[in-house]
């Protein structure tokens, strides 16, 4: 057995604290006799302004990693730091505040609220945070994902790609320091997927957005700055700016 | 936040309409029962007051039970939505406030609709009372201004308190649950369920024990209470039973794909099944508990009469008859039925007296003849002293030997001294008066029956013919049968008054729960169809599952209802010396068939309309 690989990903500007850092994080499920080690001593730092793709075979712990890093799931051991603050033991109120201001989520199933229009869905996080919601800001964010005209539509009247872009707009409207995305292109056709990836790229390049993205798609992973590979709850490999072919090849080796 | 509620409302209108409907009907029923009760109390219709008290109690109970379980159900159904809100940054307090303000709105809406509906219900209810003869034809309940405050209090109160516990639980929903498709919380048997389940189970057991010591008067309200508490207990504990019933269905439909799927769905949707079954449990428990009790009391009375009466013929007439002088008649014991109003005054301390009036059906008898035609001996005193202003009472009347009963006979106030105490009886007739305590004019108008014993060797046919000139003549056996069937009619009347509208309310709640349960399953149905089930198969699957849920309601409700029979069985054993439990088989059959029919039809209808859209449009889009 190799010691868990400690990984630091992306460029580090000026040596400030990483946007997200996991220190020796484990997450176990089940009982003592029937223990699933979804995460097994993972240490990794995601630098400010970096876009990291997380890959690995099905069941390797990618989603679990994302949920733990975002404070959605309690860790069984280790620490999670968000721009240097330890959130491992944060209470529900503190985690709620985090979700309102510093963390954004995008998931494979778009998770929009079906009864609200695109515009209302995007404005919701601000409203829940008790902030005044400037209509202009909401429209701007929707325009930035190219959906200004469809703002009055409900999710079921939008295509999958459009729904995912609304979800991205909703995640971005609070200007979070980290955006977590779990297979954001998983349910999309290749054209819509390319559009979403282009959007993420722009966010990283223009606004210095930090993104952690789980994906199965080598092409999507290749759009990121770097790729880390998980297997059986451990980080087993990483690559800086690989091509899609390189990613596919490393993945195939893992799954073999 | 309100905008969110409004748009959720448009999306999930079945949930909200269902919830509002339960509030509306509950308010209407309680308001109407209360107004009628107040009017009956003002008018002094004592017989109706007791009945209406029970009716009001049941209505209030149902309103609380049905509204709170429906509201809790709607909250549980929206678990995934709420998790999504939490994921988007809603704090726990916000989720609770959202749910509570929704409950307030729905409570207000339900009240606003329930108050006018209550006036219609009041009409129906008082018509029923008049039609069944519990109140005179001129009885008309009056509107009271203060009832608005009561109704609003009930509507808002039950809605908000119903959501209170559910909202606390919902606020604890983890944001991550928004990402899992099976939105149901793993633990359905919460601590609260165990607590209430065991508490109410203990309560119903003690009520059954108490009712076994009750007289015929107390038995009905006690049985109702025992049935209701048992129903609450079993509804709280029903998640324990759901998997069991699921297994029974699984075994019964072994090998069939739909059977297996239905079983899996039952296991997966324990909370849904339990919530759907809850109103049915109450309805079945009430119907069976109540009718079993009434039938058993009637039967016990009949058994008593058969054992107690010694005679051959009964003459039904008005006032005294000359039956005693007919040749061949050994004894003729007349008993005149006379309404008597008694007042009891108790000293409350501080110079305050509390006066309570009661209307009883007294029997005016000739003590000597009475003693020769009835086997029951007084437990205290003696019937021979029943002369002048005296009275014999039954043991449960509350008047000890030697005390004085203040009675109003006709238009005279008469103090009557208690000279004999008779054993408790189910057959009725709680007070015996001697003929000389009653003015002759009053006695002459009273309906009477005269129990006749033939002299040895008398020609029954000839005597019967001779007695015919006084009134209608039957054999004792015929007469007992006839009074039993009259008793039966009264029982049915009592059932109708107490359970007619309340039962309808519970039935609507059953339908409502089935509709709410199906409303959330569109997506699941769509997925099932995408994986190869035809629309017909999906509908049949829903039907199977709903029958399993109906079976849960029937079994648990039946248990709760049958539990109350234990008490009445012990009571009849103690009083009549023979345990009589009459199982209302006909009603049981009707209830089983009705429940399967109503629940089945509703679920077929909802599943059919939920599968109207093409599956892709639902399965693809996230909700
Ligand atoms: N709530 C849970 N209870 C029990 N085990 C779980 C739970 N969540 C995840 N697991 C287990 O943890 C392991 C990692 O799961 P995870 O969802 O992180 O995988 P993944 O890499 O995201 O897979 P996929 O690519 O298929 O989404 C799996 O073996 C899974 O079965
Ligand atoms: Mg995953």
From TrEMBL, chain A:
PROSITE patterns: ABC_TRANSPORTER_1 (PS00211), ABC_TRANSPORTER_2 (PS50893)
Keywords: ATP-binding, Nucleotide-binding, Transport
SMART domains per record: AAA
Keyword ATP-binding appears in the UniProt entry: yes
Molecular function terms from GO: ATP binding; ATP hydrolysis activity; transmembrane transporter activity
Gene Ontology CC, one term: plasma membrane
Pfam families: ABC_tran
Entries under InterPro entries matching the protein: AAA+_ATPase (IPR003593), ABC_transporter-like_ATP-bd (IPR003439), ABC_transporter-like_CS (IPR017871), ABC_transpr_LolD-like (IPR015854), MacB-like_ATP-bd (IPR017911), P-loop_NTPase (IPR027417)
Stated name of the protein: ABC transporter
Lineage: Bacteria, Bacillati, Actinomycetota, Actinomycetes, Pseudonocardiales
UniProtKB/TrEMBL annotation, chain B:
Keywords (A to Z) from UniProt: Cell membrane, Membrane, Transmembrane, Transmembrane helix
Membrane topology: Multi-pass membrane protein
Cellular localisation: Cell membrane
Positions of the ABC3 transporter permease C-terminal domain: 55-173, 497-612
Gene Ontology cellular-component terms listed: plasma membrane
Residues in MacB-like periplasmic core domain copies: 295-467
MF GO annotations: transmembrane transporter activity
Family named by the database record: Belongs to the ABC-4 integral membrane protein family.
Protein's recorded name: Uncharacterized protein
């Amino acid at each position: 057995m190799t010691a868990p690989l400690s990984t630091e990903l992306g460029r580090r500007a000026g040596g400030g604290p990483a946007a997200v850092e996991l220190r020796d994080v484990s997450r176990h499920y089940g009982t003592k006799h029937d223990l699933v080690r979804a995460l097994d001593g993972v240490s990794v730092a995601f630098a400010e302004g970096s876009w990291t793709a997380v890959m690995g075979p099905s069941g390797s712990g990618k989603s679990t990693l994302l949920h733990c890093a975002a404070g959605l799931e309690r860790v069984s051991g280790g620490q999670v730091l968000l721009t240097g603050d330890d959130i491992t033991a944060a209470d529900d109120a503190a985690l709620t505040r985090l979700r309102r201001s510093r963390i954004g989520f995008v998931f494979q199933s778009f998770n929009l609220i079906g009864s609200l229009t695109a515009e209302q869905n995007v404005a919701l996080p601000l409203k829940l945070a008790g902030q005044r919601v400037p209509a202009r800001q909401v429209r701007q964010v929707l325009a930035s994902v190219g959906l200004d005209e469809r703002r009055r539509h409900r999710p079921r009247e939008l295509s999958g790609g459009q729904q995912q872009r609304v979800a991205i707009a909703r995640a971005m409207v609070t200007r979070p320091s980290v955006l977590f995305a779990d297979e954001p292109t998983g349910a999309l056709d290749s054209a819509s997927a390319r559009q979403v990836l282009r959007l993420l790229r722009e966010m990283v390049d223009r606004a210095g957005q930090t993104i952690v993205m789980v994906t199965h798609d080598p092409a999507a992973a290749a759009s990121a700055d770097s790729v880390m590979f998980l297997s059986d709850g451990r980080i087993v490999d990483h690559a800086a700016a690989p091509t899609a072919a390189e990613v596919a090849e490393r993945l195939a080796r893992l799954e073999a | 936040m309100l905008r969110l509620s409004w748009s959720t409302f448009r999306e999930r209108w079945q949930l909200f309409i269902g919830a509002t409907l339960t509030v509306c009907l509950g308010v209407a029923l309680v308001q109407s029962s209360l107004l009628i009760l107040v009017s009956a109390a003002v008018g002094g219709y004592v017989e109706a007051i007791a009945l209406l008290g029970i009716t009001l109690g049941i209505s209030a109970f149902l309103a609380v039970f049905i509204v709170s379980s429906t509201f809790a159900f709607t909250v549980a159904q929206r678990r995934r939505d709420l998790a999504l809100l939490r994921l988007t940054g809603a704090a726990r307090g916000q989720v609770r406030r959202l749910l509570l303000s929704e409950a307030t709105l729905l409570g207000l809406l339900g009240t606003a609709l329930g108050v006018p509906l209550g006036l219609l219900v009041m009409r129906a209810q008082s018509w029923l009372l008049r039609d069944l003869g519990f109140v005179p034809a001129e009885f008309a309940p009056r509107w009271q201004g203060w009832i608005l405050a009561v109704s609003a209090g009930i509507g808002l109160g039950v809605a908000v308190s119903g959501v209170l516990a559910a909202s606390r639980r919902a606020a604890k929903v983890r944001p991550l649950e928004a990402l899992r498709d099976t939105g149901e919380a793993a633990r359905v048997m919460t601590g609260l369920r165990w607590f209430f389940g065991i508490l109410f189970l203990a309560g119903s057991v003690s009520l059954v024990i108490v009712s076994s010591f009750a007289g015929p008067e107390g038995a009905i309200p006690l049985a109702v209470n025992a049935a209701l508490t048992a129903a609450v207990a079993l509804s709280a504990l029903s998640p324990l039973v759901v998997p069991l019933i699921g297994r029974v269905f699984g075994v019964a439909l072994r090998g069939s794909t739909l059977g297996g799927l239905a079983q899996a769905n039952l296991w997966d949707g324990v909370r849904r099944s339990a919530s759907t079954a809850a109103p049915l449990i109450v309805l079945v428990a009430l119907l069976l508990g109540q009718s079993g009790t009434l039938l058993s009391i009637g039967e016990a009375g009949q058994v008593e009469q058969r054992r107690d009466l010694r005679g051959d013929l009964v003459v039904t007439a008005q006032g005294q008859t000359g039956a005693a002088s007919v040749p061949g008649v050994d004894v003729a014991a007349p008993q005149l039925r006379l309404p008597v109003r008694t007042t009891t005054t108790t000293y409350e301390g501080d110079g305050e007296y509390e006066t309570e009036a009661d209307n009883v059906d007294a029997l005016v008898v000739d003590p000597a003849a009475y003693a020769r035609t009835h086997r029951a001996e007084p437990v205290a005193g003696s019937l021979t002293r029943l002369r002048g202003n005296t009275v014999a009472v039954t043991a449960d009347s509350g008047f000890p030997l030697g005390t004085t009963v203040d009675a109003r006979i006709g238009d005279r106030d008469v103090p009557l001294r208690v000279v004999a105490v008779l054993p408790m009886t189910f057959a009725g007739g709680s007070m015996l008066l001697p003929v000389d305590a009653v003015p002759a004019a009053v006695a002459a108008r009273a309906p009477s029956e005269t129990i006749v014993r033939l002299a040895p060797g008398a020609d029954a046919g000839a005597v019967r013919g001779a007695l015919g000139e006084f009134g209608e003549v039957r054999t004792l056996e015929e007469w007992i049968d006839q009074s039993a069937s009259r008793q039966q009619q009264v029982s049915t009347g009592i059932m109708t008054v107490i359970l007619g509208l309340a039962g309808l309310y519970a039935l609507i709640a059953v339908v409502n729960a089935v509709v709410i349960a199906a409303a959330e399953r569109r997506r699941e149905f769509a997925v099932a169809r995408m994986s190869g089930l035809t629309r017909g198969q999906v509908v049949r699957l829903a039907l199977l599952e709903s029958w399993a849920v109906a079976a849960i309601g029937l079994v648990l409700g039946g248990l709760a209802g049958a539990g109350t029979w234990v008490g009445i069985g012990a009571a009849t054993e103690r009083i009549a010396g023979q345990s009589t439990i009459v199982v209302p088989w006909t009603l049981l059959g009707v209830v089983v068939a009705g429940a399967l029919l109503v629940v089945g039809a509703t679920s077929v209808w909802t599943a059919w309309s939920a599968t109207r859209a093409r599956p892709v449009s639902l399965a693809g889009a996230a909700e």
